[in-house]
Structures are given as C-alpha cells and as structure tokens.
Amino acid sequence: MPDLNLMPQIDAYLQARATLYAPVAYDAFAGDSTEELMVRHDPSPALTKRYLDGSWWGAFNFSFYAKSHDMDKARAQLEAIAVVLEIETFANLFGVSEGRLALVTRPVLVDQDKSGVTIQTSSYRLVFFKEVAS
Predict the structure, then answer these.
(1) Angle formed by the axes of helices 71-85 and 7-17, to 10°?
(2) pLDDT digits (tens, 9 = 90+) for 58-111
(3) Any residues with CB less than 8 A from the CB of 61 and at least 6 apart, and which?
(4) 1-59 pLDDT, tens per residue?
(5) Is residue 78 exposed (0-12), middle (13-18) or buried (19+ Cβ within 10 Å)?
(6) Are the C-beta atoms of 64 and 14 separated by less than 8 Å?
(7) Dihedral of alpha carbons 90, 50, 132, 58, sign
(8) Is 11 helix (H, G, I), strand (E, B) or coil?
(9) Cβ contact 50:129 at 8 Å
(10) Using CA atoms, how far apart are residues 39 and 123, in angstroms rounded to an integer?
C-alpha cells in the first residue's frame, strides 16, 4: 500500500499559516496542559486507486482536536485551522501532485471534564493524486 502519511506536511503547512495556541501532537495529547492540539487519522478506510505507471489516487479522513479550559477558545482555534486547511483544489502541495482538502465536520464538543476542560474536534477529508517521480 502506498504511504498515506501526509500529516507532517499538512502540519508544516498549517504551522506556517495559522497562529496556534499549542504545538500539534500526533495521535494523543502530549501532556497535562489545559491547552493542547492533536491530529489523528480517523478510523476509516484509506482508499487508493493505482495505475500501471505507478501513480495513484489516495483518500483518507483525519481530525484535529483542541483541548482548552475555555470552550470558545478551543472552537475558535479549530475554526482558524479550518480557514487554512479547507482547500477546494490544490496542485503541488503536501508532496502530492493535486487534490482537495474538505472540511467534513465543523467543530463539535467531544468531552468536558469536571474541571471544565473541553475537547472539541473537526474532521477533514483529503483526496489526492500522487505521480511517480521520474
């Protein structure tokens, strides 16, 4: 199966274009801070369609999570991420030839603990074409 791990490139793109209140951790929150960000691939099938020349189409879903004691701040952080990452069409970005990056769900509340720390999430779908380097 082709490598579908484009999260480091997506994260670098986001870091260069958005003001984030914390570094983005992968797959789990990094610590015990009340303000953290995380991204992870969603448990969904990663689809690919391969061609004889070695090029291929890929698609997968991923989600950003924002943790904060301030519910509005977490939501605003996810909205700021969406402004940067919602790309109708792109070319030569994230190390792929072309694609689109769509917001699937707007920020929604996932959890709120007894101390008032909330976790919110928003989800994306990336569909992309990767050519074989010649």
Answers:
(1) 110
(2) 999 999 999 999 999 999 999 999 999 999 999 999 989 999 999 999 999 999
(3) 41, 42, 44, 104, 123, 124, 125, 126
(4) 456 689 999 999 999 999 999 999 999 998 888 899 999 998 877 778 888 888 889 99
(5) buried
(6) no
(7) positive
(8) helix
(9) no
(10) 10
Can you tell me the distance from the alpha carbon of 65 to that of 26, in angstroms, rounded to the nearest whole number? 10
Query: For residue 100, what are its two tokens?
Result: 């689109």
Place of tokens 């698609």: 59
Question: For residue 62, what are the β-bridge partners?
Answer: 41, 124
Closest CA to 121 of 112, 129, 113, 130: 112
Q: What is the DSSP string of 31-80?
A: SS-SSEEEEEE-SS--EEEE-TTS-EEEEEEEEEEEEESSHHHHHHHHHH
Question: Are the beta carbons of 40 and 29 closer than 8 angstroms?
Answer: no
For residue 60, the Cα-to-chain-centroid distance in whole angstroms is 10
